[in-house]
Amino acid sequence: REQLINRAIKVLEDNYQPGGFTIPSEGLYPFQWKWDSGFIALGFAHFDLEKAKSEIKTLLDAQWENGFIPHIVFHTDSDSYFPGPDFHQSDLHPQASEKYRSTGMTQPPVTGFVLERLLEIANEDGDMMEFVKSQIDKVYTNHIYLYENRDVEGNGLVYIYHNWESGTDNSPIWDDIWETMDPPEYQFERRDTSHVDPAQRPSKREYDHYLYIIDIAKQHNYDDAKIAEHSPFLVLDPLFNSMLIRSNEALINLYTKIGGNEEKLSYLKSKQEQSIASLNEKLYNSTLGAYVHFDLRNNKQIPYVSSSSFTPFFAGAPDKEKAEAMVNTLQQKFGGEGRYLCASFDPTHDRFNPRKYWRGPVWINLNWILFHGLNRYGYHDLADRVKTDSLKLIENYGFHEYFDSRKTNPDTDNSGYGGDNFSWSAALLIDLMN
Ligand code: DGY
């Protein structure tokens, strides 16, 4: 046990940068990523509170004037990554950060619940409370940004306009949307496939779609209202919205502890109620027994089950009946004896690919979310299985970015994929073991 934790600490220390932030993985991801930072801070908090704080502080320092927080902060120049700042050109937006170059898209809003967990790990320590007080308004402003600019139907659910905003970058869920598009063939040099086996990464044609959506956003100077009008990709994501709801709840808990802040509390509480009701109404699919994505552009649910489908547990959204149906779906489709929990896409579906990025493999951050969500609903045995499987995968195959969900023989098969010495796999192992 101690040996595994020490190895995890080493991964985090090695990926920590002089600028006070941590890269997800050397070579493949050489900058600061938004939701990675949140999970990474949770790992550091168990052995180095200053680094945990610094991780969040550097991320929030890159917040835009309108409250937006970018998905990548390009702290340094690195040519090992494509597309870099020169492609994204986020400074087209009039309120972009003047201090940092970044992308013009965001990632799941985890920072609220990360602040709450940091305070918990630090045992409600006064110093950490001061830190929370110094950062919480930035997270609150970010939630206002999301509700005021990305809730096109006025029902408390916010859109994402790019698959990279979902965090589940090349999920088979998006295939239906790609079929509605016909982007030009871009000429560019991939960098990711020089670090990782191309069989484990998205295809060239998928990248054409990714770049094309960015180009459309650029044509409109990253204006949210125009993006909502013109982007071919406009989706309500159960994962993104569940993270927002859970972070909202965390802000409510933290502001209540801090005292005062009545106006903020009543804003957050009214959004909270509305968002949960809409999530249940719009994203739950009773035939599948799971939450699914909703394609706003084509006005329909995208009926596939993925690990994102179960993240509403973490947000406390499903009622008892939905919760039971979800557990059944999880066990039947994802939880067979020969499998580790939890594959990122329905293993019984023909689009499932056990090796390719978000098209099937197990990710430790989704497992962490699922572990806490299942415990919240009293499914402790299933939660324990998610935790045990996560630790086993790392113990068998190392601190990889993602893993095969099929149980193989660790002596003969290498089932760890993507980047190696991956920060959130290390950070969340530490948090799960404490
Ligand atoms: C990548 O480059 O695959 C990143 O995950 C995008 O955020």
UniProtKB/TrEMBL annotation:
It comes from the Bacteria. GO terms for biological process: oligosaccharide metabolic process; protein N-linked glycosylation. Gene3D superfamilies: 1.50.10.10. Pfam families: MGH1-like_GH. Keywords: Glycosidase, Hydrolase. InterPro entries: 6-hairpin_glycosidase_sf, 6hp_glycosidase-like_sf, Glycoside_hydrolase_63, MGH1-like_GH. GO terms for molecular function: Glc3Man9GlcNAc2 oligosaccharide glucosidase activity. Residues 29-425 form the Mannosylglycerate hydrolase MGH1-like glycoside hydrolase domain. Belongs to the glycosyl hydrolase 63 family. This is Glycoside hydrolase. It comes from Flagellimonas nanhaiensis.
